[in-house]
Design brief:
This protein is α+β, with helices and mostly antiparallel strands. Helices cover about 40% and strands about 15% of the residues. The chain has 4 helices and 6 strands. Strands 4-5-3-2-1-6 form a 6-stranded antiparallel sheet. The model has no long low-confidence stretch (mean pLDDT about 85).
Amino acid sequence: MALVTNTAELIAQFKARHEAVMAAANAKLLALRQRMQQQAQATKALFSRAPTRPAIQPPADHPWPWQHPNNTSVAVVRGPDSQCWVRVMHRSGTQMLAPWPAFDGWDETFPPSIGQPDQQLQAYAVPNIVAALQWLRQRGYEAPQVSRWPEVRKLLPDPV
């Protein structure tokens, strides 16, 4: 009936309802965006305060303070005269061979093609660990036994 008697009034009612619905939807959208922004800020604040997981540290009695904090496996290579070498990864990623127990002249054991002695670390820097282990095997050393320090320590003679 309103269509017949007053078309302009009917169109105005439809327009008013549409604008009211759109205003409510926009208000809801604005509220959702604000809530998402607040949650994002809260999450960011939470993670910025979250403690970082510390790197795994070798046991306190570990003899190599320079050992890589995450690559903590070591390998023991035992010789026929009970002399041992221990493969340890340096924090720089370099493979090292340390004598166990340390002995006079340890730094003259390997030829330069195998590695370079580091007097400060008391170990050889070995660029090719496979070649170094093969060199030791050719001289009567056993195959390496790989584990973590507490287990490997049980395989080693007591240092003098």
